[in-house]
Amino acid sequence: MKFLTAVVVVDIQKDFTTAYKGSLAVNGTDQTYLKSASEATKKLKGVGLPIYATQDWHPADHVSFASNHKGKKHLETITLEDGRTQILWPDHCVQGTEGAKLLLDEKLFAGIVKKGTNSKYDSYSGFQDDGGAKTVLDKTLKSTGIKNLIVYGIATDYCIKFTVLDGMAAGYDVTVIRDLTPEIAPDTAKAAWAEMEKKGAAIWPSLDMAKVKKLL
Ligand code: VGL
Ligand code: ZN
């Protein structure tokens, strides 16, 4: 059977979780969350859907790390030489480190899409970085005839928002699973949910396998 729907699990990595005392730990990412995310992913895999993971994968000299900008702190915003604004974060998901590891069983995934690998550009989106360089995600999905995406993971206000908006811009119907998608801050998350919905994303409060079966 050929599926019309794929699942994109965003950035479920040690550094983003309280469960592993990550450097950029997001509220609501304890062991209970990880268990729910893992069970949901297994159910989706169980009905045959292809599952892709995105993985934040930064070099140590990445532009988004406050430590690479003298005198700057976590969550400050800077203006880069080319005029773009960049939010600064603690060092996180450095290539090859423990904190960059994915927390779901990698056997679940049809592919793992690394992002944020260019030190000059951040990449909240799983589709492309801030310099416009595409990842393999869109090509991979299009080449297998995928039309719909089910998205969840970390975090609503950054990587989920940009992955969902770029997914819709690339022509996919996108559904986001709210209770599997924790957020960095309430105000930015509220705006992110509103924007995703306004631009046409379906927001489900939780994973509903009866509804998923209609998307297959
Ligand atoms: C993310 C901040 C920096 C995310 C990644 O996964 O939402 N947030 N890098
Ligand atoms: Zn990052």
Structural features, described:
- The strands form two sheets. Strands 5-2-1-6-7-8 form a six-stranded parallel beta sheet, with helices on both faces. A two-stranded antiparallel sheet has the order 3-4.
- The termini are close together.
- The chain is an alpha/beta fold and 216 residues long.
- It has one domain (5-58, 99-215): Isochorismatase-like (Rossmann fold).
- Helix content is 26%, strand content 17%.
- The model has no long low-confidence stretch (mean pLDDT 97).
- The longest helix has 16 residues, at 31-46.
- The radius of gyration is 16 Å and the shape is globular.
- The chain has helices at 31-46, 137-143, 156-169, 186-198, 209-215, and strands at 5-10, 51-56, 77-79, 85-87, 111-115, 148-153, 173-177, 202-204.
- Pyrazine-2-carboxylic acid (VGL) binds at residues 11, 16, 56, 89, 124, 154-155, 158-159.
Q: Characteristics of this structure?
A:
alpha/beta; Rossmann fold; 26% helix; globular; single chain; binds pyrazine-2-carboxylic acid; binds zinc ion; 8 strands; six-stranded parallel sheet; 216 residues; two-stranded antiparallel sheet
